Amino acid sequence: MTIALHFEQIIAVDLDEAWHSLHHDLCLLSAGLPNVRHIREVSRQGAADAAGQAHYAWGIEHDVVPGVARPFLRNLLDEVRSDTHWHEGARQVEFLFYTEGMPELFSCQGRFLLDNHNSGTVMRIVGDLDVAPHELPGVPKLLARSIMPTVERVIRDAISPSLEALPTALDRLIQQRRELSQ
Fold it and tell me: Whose CA is closest to 178, among 9, 10, 8, 12?
């Protein structure tokens, strides 16, 4: 099943400041994201402010997975991985979210786009979330049909609200920094 994602929000922050903060402080945004315990940088390649790649692990809150799905999902959603490709000139980040324990279970591909707006920066997040719950091992055929919608919902709830809240979390982080520096 493919779920189209499209979120757009204007934040009252200069484009360069928004880009710099997103690029350098993504891990700090977890406090403002629903269903996310932490974001940690796993590795980074390329110059600090230029094009490059970064790999992250997003710790997902345990209560996102309901009891009925826990036996099948086990710890597959404890940490969701993201591979990102940063394109500074275009102010664009290509992303791929997946679970390292079973990459075929789902993938969420898309991009973050930052553009100038007369009142700050517009941040767009577009992508597709593909979920393949039938790939879960150990799901009896009789149970497969009834568990599939739950698995799809759990994965959607682990990914989509966090992406939707990303612009607000970025805006809050930058505003907090401004307040602290005054």
Answer: 12
